[in-house]
Amino acid sequence: MSDHLVYGLHAVQALLKSAPQRIEQLLLLKGRNDQRLQKLRLSAEKNNIAISVLSRADLDRQVEGNHQGVIAKTQANTAVYDEAFLRDAVTNLSGNPFILVLDGVTDPHNLGACLRSAEAAGVHWVIVPKDNSAGLSPTAVKVACGAAEVLPLVSVTNLSRTLKWLQEQGVWVIGAAGEAQQHHTEADLKGPLALVMGAEGKGMRRLTRECCDSLIRIPMAGEVSSLNVSVATGVCLFEALRQRS
Predict the structure, then answer these.
(1) Count of beta carbons in the 10 Å neighbourhood of residue 125
(2) Ramachandran region of residue 48, left (φ > 0), alpha (ψ -120 to 50) or beta?
(3) Which domain holds residue 28?
């Protein structure tokens, strides 16, 4: 199975819109002629992308997930950026940085969902540690619904060092933790911001927590003690977006 595949209606549609030049071939399900698939076909033809029509069994052999009748073969994997890219990007950005940091999110579904929320909220970059973190697998790219194609994911060797460097650039580092006293709606999220979300279940690592300027929590009214990391990320990001708007 090739890693150079983007599949699912939303993900392929987003790729056709944002970077059609990356698509080498579009694979479509034989016998499916609904409007959504026809729009993808027309877009591919407009961009001179080769189209192949395959049986469901042939498409199923290409990927493990639900392809929804469409798979795009691309030139290369979605890019993952490094510390040098981040330093240049932060230094040259006009305006306040808005950054999401994911500390040890290992589930590709959660990574994809976080990327999707981050792109929708206007985040500039998502930072993850190189070790103990999900990568941009086909599953993560599909769940991201196009966000992985346009939102830079930065993989860093030492997350604590990166957070300290961001602080030196005037970025306020705020972490989400269940034991925090301040609610997410009470914090000032308008300026240069790096929002840090911890791993599923365990939360942030100790060194990451110690790098935070302050901690926030989402108030809970029910019996469940915590939210899924992708849900919590969306809640906090859109509170930041509300304030920044």
Answers:
(1) 21
(2) left
(3) 5-74
Q: How far is CA 7 from each of CA 24, 26, 60, 84, 200, rounded to the nearest angstrom? A: 13, 10, 11, 30, 26
Mean pLDDT check: name the lowest of 56-70, 158-172, 228-242: 56-70
Q: Do 43 and 108 lie in a common domain?
A: no
Please give the tally of structural domains in the chain.
2
**Helix H or strand E segment including 7:** strand 5-7
CA distances from 205 to 110, 123, 128 (A): 18, 23, 13
The answer to whether 151 touches 123, Cβ cutoff 8 Å, is yes
Tens digits of per-residue pLDDT, 48-75? 999 999 999 999 998 877 899 999 988 6
Are residues 68 and 91 part of one domain?
A: no
Q: What CATH number did the domain enclosing 132 receive?
A: 3.40.1280.10
CA–CA separation, 12 vs 17, rounded Å?
9
